[in-house]
């Protein structure tokens, strides 16, 4: 059997240490995520850490350090796709970025463990945990401070409800009015409301917005023909 010819006890023990370390450290990271009921919890973070460790360890045993470097680059991009699945857009808010970043950190921990850099794996784990726990009070303090929309970067969304057949014409007029008011339009999406009406959602991104000017634009749009309803909302990028 090929296994009998290639099995080396000490190399196997080294792999066990790498994967076990990734498992334990991934558990620490995942337990904090599970406690906070995030999308990617205990099992996901453990599997990411163990998988990264296994791939890096395998490549080191087969092709040495050069092969490990190539595999680590694939791990980084692969976990990026995995993290994208945890990111959700809710209106003008984006949730899950912190969860995706934590998965990236778990992969880094696993890669360090797989490369036999166990002390470095522990260090990265401590920093990931510190980012998710020790920085939380600071985030709460910053978020509780009064928001000055004149100096903060904010996302404004104007929602215009129109008749379905009038949507193209209203979209053009909406774009022109926002451009005349010097409000840059990031995107205008169409959302179906009913069989006869749709919502045109214009997303504005600006570092400084004059509220009275925005209210004036909304009032002007409200007087446009075929417009059934107009509203706007402000988001500072609610990131999980």
UniProtKB/TrEMBL annotation:
<feature type="transmembrane region" description="Helical">
    <location>
        <begin position="12"/>
        <end position="30"/>
    </location>
</feature>
<keyword id="KW-0997">Cell inner membrane</keyword>
<dbReference type="InterPro" id="IPR048640">
    <property type="entry name" value="MgtC-like_C"/>
</dbReference>
<feature type="domain" description="MgtC-like C-terminal">
    <location>
        <begin position="156"/>
        <end position="232"/>
    </location>
</feature>
<keyword id="KW-1003">Cell membrane</keyword>
<keyword id="KW-0812">Transmembrane</keyword>
<feature type="domain" description="MgtC/SapB/SrpB/YhiD N-terminal">
    <location>
        <begin position="21"/>
        <end position="139"/>
    </location>
</feature>
<dbReference type="InterPro" id="IPR003416">
    <property type="entry name" value="MgtC/SapB/SrpB/YhiD_fam"/>
</dbReference>
<comment type="similarity">
    <text>Belongs to the MgtC/SapB family.</text>
</comment>
<dbReference type="InterPro" id="IPR049177">
    <property type="entry name" value="MgtC_SapB_SrpB_YhiD_N"/>
</dbReference>
<keyword id="KW-1133">Transmembrane helix</keyword>
<protein>
    <recommendedName>
        <fullName>Protein MgtC</fullName>
    </recommendedName>
</protein>
<feature type="transmembrane region" description="Helical">
    <location>
        <begin position="42"/>
        <end position="62"/>
    </location>
</feature>
<feature type="transmembrane region" description="Helical">
    <location>
        <begin position="100"/>
        <end position="130"/>
    </location>
</feature>
<comment type="function">
    <text>Virulence factor required for growth in low Mg(2+) medium and for intramacrophage survival. May be involved in regulating membrane potential by activating Na(+)/K(+)-ATPase.</text>
</comment>
<dbReference type="Pfam" id="PF02308">
    <property type="entry name" value="MgtC"/>
</dbReference>
<feature type="transmembrane region" description="Helical">
    <location>
        <begin position="68"/>
        <end position="88"/>
    </location>
</feature>
<dbReference type="GO" id="GO:0005886">
    <property type="term" value="C:plasma membrane"/>
</dbReference>
<keyword id="KW-0472">Membrane</keyword>
<dbReference type="Pfam" id="PF21770">
    <property type="entry name" value="MgtC_SapB_C"/>
</dbReference>
């Amino acid at each position: 059997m090929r296994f009998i010819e290639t099995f080396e006890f000490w190399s196997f023990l080294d792999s066990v240490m790498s994967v076990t370390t990734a498992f334990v450290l991934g558990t620490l990271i995942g337990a904090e995520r599970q406690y906070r009921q995030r999308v990617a919890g205990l099992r996901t973070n453990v599997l990411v850490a163990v998988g990264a460790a296994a791939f890096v360890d395998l490549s080191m045993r087969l092709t040495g350090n050069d092969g490990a470097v190539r595999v680590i680059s694939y791990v980084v991009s692969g976990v990026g796709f995995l993290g994208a699945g945890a990111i959700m857009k809710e209106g003008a808010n984006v949730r899950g970025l912190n969860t995706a970043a934590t998965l990236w950190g778990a992969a880094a921990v696993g890669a360090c463990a797989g490369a036999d850099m166990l002390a470095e794996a522990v260090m990265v784990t401590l920093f990931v945990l510190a980012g998710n726990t020790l920085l939380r009070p600071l985030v709460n303090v910053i978020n509780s401070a009064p928001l000055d929309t004149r100096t903060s970067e904010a996302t404004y969304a104007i929602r215009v409800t129109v008749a379905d057949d009038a949507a193209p014409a209203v979209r053009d007029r909406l774009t022109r009015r926002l451009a005349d008011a010097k409000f840059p339009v990031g995107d205008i999406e169409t959302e179906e409301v009913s069989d006869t009406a749709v919502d045109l959602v214009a997303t504005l991104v600006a570092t400084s917005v004059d509220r009275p000017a925005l209210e004036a634009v909304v009032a002007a749009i409200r007087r446009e023909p075929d417009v059934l309803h107009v509203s706007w909302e402000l988001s500072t990028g609610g990131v999980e």
